Amino acid sequence: MVSFSCNNCGDVLKKNQVNNHMWRCGGTVSCLDCLTTFSGNGYSAHNTCISEEQKYQGALYRGPKKARLTGLLGQQNQQRNQQQNGGAQQQPAATQQNITQEAPQEEKKDESKAKEAEEESQKKRKRNEEKEEKKKERKKESKKRKIEEEKESDDEKKKSKKEKKEEEKKETEEALIKKFLEQLPWEETIKEVLKKDDKKKMKKKKLRKKVVSTLLTHKIQEQLEAHFTAQAKEGTFKHFIKS
Q1: What is the pLDDT of residues 114-158, one digit of tens each?
Q2: Angstrom distance (rounded) from CA 228 to CA 220
Q3: Domain limits for position 3
Q4: Could you read off the pLDDT of 220-242 as tens digits, one per residue?
Q5: The total number of structural domains that make up the chain
Q6: Residue 175 shares a structural domain with residue 194
């Protein structure tokens, strides 16, 4: 009966032990006689192996044609399995190489993302600064406008007070003039003018002219003189009058 060697741990196994061992250890097994490597369940078809002559003659043994073909196929299978195993062993190196190649690319991506995030942060900060600047400008303009409005309001108040004062003064003057005119001897002067012309009536325009002229020349002069004398007696003009 053929025996096998585990290519993973090196244990020597009988054929009925290979299945359980491969489940536990994995990998491949090789025939101890012909050194053919088997993977999976390929070992189960390997029931017979080299003869005693082939085993001890080694490279000098030629054997029958069928045996040579079997040996050749075994060598080819062994080479193919070795190539597969070699590819499997080289795969981690290739994977490591891919990882090594991908690492700088990932770093570049991370750097690019960080740069974009920084640029976006700067843009956002700039927008916020512009908003704050505009807000300050609006506040400044509002304060300036308020000061101007208050100034205009004060000017309006001053103007209003001045106008009111002038209006009151004007009303006072008009009231005084009206009172003065009402106190003039209108009827007495009219009768005097008509009597002087020996008439009972006269046209309005002519009568007005004669009455005003009489008042200005005589009556008002008398009243003004009387008013001045009264004020002088009260001492109103004492600092203007020589003793």
Answers
A1: 888 888 889 988 999 998 999 889 988 888 888 888 888 887 777
A2: 12
A3: 1-50
A4: 777 777 777 877 788 776 776 66
A5: 3
A6: no
